[in-house]
Amino acid sequence: MRWENLTADPAGGPARDAALFGADAVTTRTFDTPEFRGITFHEVRARSIVNRVPGASRMPFEWTVNPYRGCTHACVYCFARKTHSYLDLDTGLDFDSQIVVKVNAPELLRRQLASRRWLGEHIAMGTNVDCYQRAEGRYALMPGIIAALRDHANPFSILTKGTLILRDLDLLRQASEVTDVGISVSVGFTDTELWRTVEPGTPAPERRLDVVRALTDHGIGCGVLMAPVIPFLGDHPAQLRATVRAVAASGATSVTPLVLHLRPGAREWFMAWLERHHRHLVPRYERLYAEGAYAPKWYQRRITRQVHELAQEYGIGPTRAGMPRRITAPEPAVPIVPTAPSASAAPGPTQLTLL
Fold this sequence. Notes:
Blueprint: E1 26-30, E2 40-44, E3 50-52, E4 63-65, E5 68-69, H1 93-97, E6 98-102, H2 105-113, E7 123-125, H3 135-139, H4 142-151, E8 156-160, H5 169-176, E9 181-186, H6 192-198, H7 205-217, E10 222-229, H8 237-250, E11 255-259, H9 266-277, H10 282-288, H11 297-313
Parallel strand pairs: 2-6, 4-7, 7-8, 8-9, 9-10, 10-11
Antiparallel strand pairs: 1-2, 3-4, 5-6
Helix pairs in contact: 2-4, 4-5, 7-8, 8-11
């Protein structure tokens, strides 16, 4: 494995030139417990923890903190899979089971925030891999990270699928009293069968919406990133309605749809999964994503328009965050039939691309 740019000399000196580091710089652990069986953790001491987002990125922020690499959530579509290839690990099973833990992340962040060169800019977390994945239950890096941001009144945001964020509720409330704190929970769909197959290591969608509800009840506004909307499997109008309705019932302040995108690394893994589970959809995906990692603009606009209309219907919007939601009785179930793309779909708002 390659540890270049991830580790520092244990004595605090400059990093060594070699790309490969020995056991004195990386500690590898396994834990024989049900939640961690089959998972290998590589504990490293990072040289830096505040990372600048490349200028060509579509991210609406400039700085990130990622205490982990690899993710036990094992989402088959995860765009971050490619990053594991930089460590000479594969982007499939290794990404799901070989987790890099930056054990010095809290102390390193505190030191960097105190630097005269740091200007107190917004820091985003959870935008590469989930900072509240299962590993966080053992390593508990986020309390120290949030405390450092709170103590320096540094604005930050967190995106997560993990319910473990509720452990840090008091810290989040303290931070929100001194700086801008943005929390978003990722819920792309509420279809239970789809969740079990594409997001096998995550809490169920309804548990994630419980997180939204709990944060809102404690005075911390929380939006929902409706991501990803998966073509032909999670984009039927009845599925979109069910998801937006559940989001509204949770008290979310906003809902932002993002259509599945398939970057290299993720694309190969997802298409292999699609071949096993929904072989008949492979040709349709090859056509839809023929031009690259993103679905065509007409498709993105169609999904965005549908979700925005549903959000308006159910009272989700930026005008009066926290306003009471009027939730009607559940509607009868509608059989889900895969939808075909329609090049004649009417134009609408362009999808926001955060990931």
